[in-house]
């Protein structure tokens, strides 16, 4: 068990000798890069709740202090404004490396910065992990499969990615990040984990980041038409954020490197998603068709057999249950306090 035998120099002592194995764990120092973002802040909530000391490193490009503000009084919590493209010295036991612009709107805003974050940023965090002997988890993406020629996508599929397109800074950036991670594992004996995350939604998502779930929800709440790109028949699988966080933690604590697909296999066309949003928010919401973006993958659905078998993980929250939780949060953030909310 890694938690009992971690080789890194922790200032925390193991908690007691006689606790049954499995329940026994010492308090860890955990670094979450991108921890002020959507997924990162939910992960931080769980780590803090578990009693770990958590350091967030974030440059606040898309992250918000508000996402972690509720921890600022906690002496075991710390936020550092820092860009992972620059080196940093810290002492931790585990590194969850999430920092990266994610939505097309953000990663295309400055593609060179995006690829630098994926390559130089990941290299720095791996160098850090190597120096201190920390376990390193990379949050990669289903985009490494590109416009997949295999459906559903299995981890052994090598993908179909355009290396010179407008999405490449993100897709190829993450592919290189995976390569670096495996090379540090093989070449420097680093303990690593790789998650390939499929489309995830939930409270704290950036409101105007252009991703489909956040767009549709904000549009329906603002009484604007839902913008369906292309013919709306392309598919995606949508995972609620708590399921993802559970999967990331199981992966970090487990014995397997991966890569593991972490996603919800429930597959929806964009028109079906629009219908779920209409049913949840406003049955009268109109749909407006717009031209699709270049290189848009036609289909995407994870095969999660490997995560089920080796991590004992599978998502629990279906779209019709997760979406209302996100709507409550978006309603509050879009309309402020004048709207009643149920949370
Ligand atoms: P997010 O934009 O909410 O979070 C990313 C965080 O990284 C932000 O807080 C941002 O400020 C920070 N960041 C960006 N560049 C940085 C840099 N150079 N230095 C330091 N901090 C930096 O996005 P998210 O949805 O929470 O995504 C988190 C991770 O999960 C990303 O690595 C992303 O690629 C991966 N992922 C997410 C999804 C999804 O659907 N949400 C899907 C696949 C993969
Ligand atoms: N690095 C870092 N913090 C550390 C150790 C390394 O940011 O505690 C950075 C370092 O600046 C370098 C990168 O991680 O750019 C890779 O480090 P590594 O030691 O693997 O490579 P080297 O420095 O030998 O090129
Ligand atoms: N999309 C859409 N309307 C929007 C935003 C996106 O129909 O307002 C489509 C987009 O063309 C893509 C799918 O929704 O086919 C998912 O897009 P998103 O950017 O959310 O995720 P990704 O393409 O990274 O999976």
From TrEMBL:
The keyword Cytoplasm does not apply. Its EC number is 4.1.1.35. Residues 31-324 form the NAD(P)-binding domain. It comes from the Eukaryota. It is found in: Golgi apparatus, Golgi stack membrane. This is UDP-glucuronate decarboxylase. Its cofactor is NAD(+). It is a single-pass type II membrane protein. Belongs to the NAD(P)-dependent epimerase/dehydratase family. UDP-glucuronic acid decarboxylase subfamily. One of its GO terms (biological process) is D-xylose metabolic process. The chain holds residues 83 to 425 of 431 of the full protein. One of its GO terms (molecular function) is UDP-glucuronate decarboxylase activity. It comes from Urochloa decumbens.
